[in-house]
Design goal:
Length: about 180
């Protein structure tokens, strides 16, 4: 008999829901995974700029989910962009919470063309900027900027999946992560 594991994702974006469902199914194969997306406010701009704003957006989504829903785990992903010393890039922060622990993880960087980053600074969202540049529609619920810029060798979902996989480590080895000395 399979036990159900309920996961609430702080977004209704199917890319984010699928990434979370994939990770929990991988780590908990003996459970039936009930993974649901809900609208959860980030309380940051639609296009976060900078690592801090992006991380806070993901944490705000998870905290909202914890306050309004009952689940075993709460998950949020927030994509952002920043101008680093070596160039513009986009990335995502992920947060996983199980009511005992909240773990923050981060994806790798995808270098962004400066012209696209400049559009973000002018108030546009990355998905809309990419749709214009590549003549696509609603790419943020598909492969995302990552898919377009890597010719689909990586996707938005694969990037979230990797970041979530790594962020699960403290839940798998609680004793080790709780040691301080």
């Amino acid at each position: 008999m399979l036990y159900s594991l309920k996961i609430i994702v702080g977004s209704k974006n199917p890319v984010k829901i699928n990434a979370a469902k994939h990770i929990f199914a991988m780590y908990f194969p003996e459970h039936e995974i009930d993974c649901q997306g809900v609208d959860a406010p980030s309380n940051v701009p639609d296009q976060p700029i900078g690592e801090e704003e992006t991380r806070v957006g993901a944490q705000n989504r998870v905290n909202y989910c914890k306050e309004h829903y009952q689940a075993h785990y709460y998950v949020a992903m927030e994509g952002g962009a920043e101008q680093f010393s070596y160039g513009a890039a986009t990335f995502a922060y992920v947060v996983i919470d199980n009511a005992l622990n909240q773990v923050v993880g981060r994806s790798s960087n995808l270098p962004l063309p400066q012209v696209l980053y400049n559009a973000l600074l002018n108030g546009e969202e990355l998905g809309d900027v990419m749709d214009k540049a590549f003549n696509t529609t609603n790419v943020k619920q598909k492969g995302g900027a990552i898919g377009l810029l890597t010719n689909n060798h990586a996707t938005r979902e694969s990037t979230y999946t990797q970041a979530l996989t790594l962020a699960m480590a403290p839940f798998l080895h609680v004793d080790l992560y709780s040691q301080t000395n």
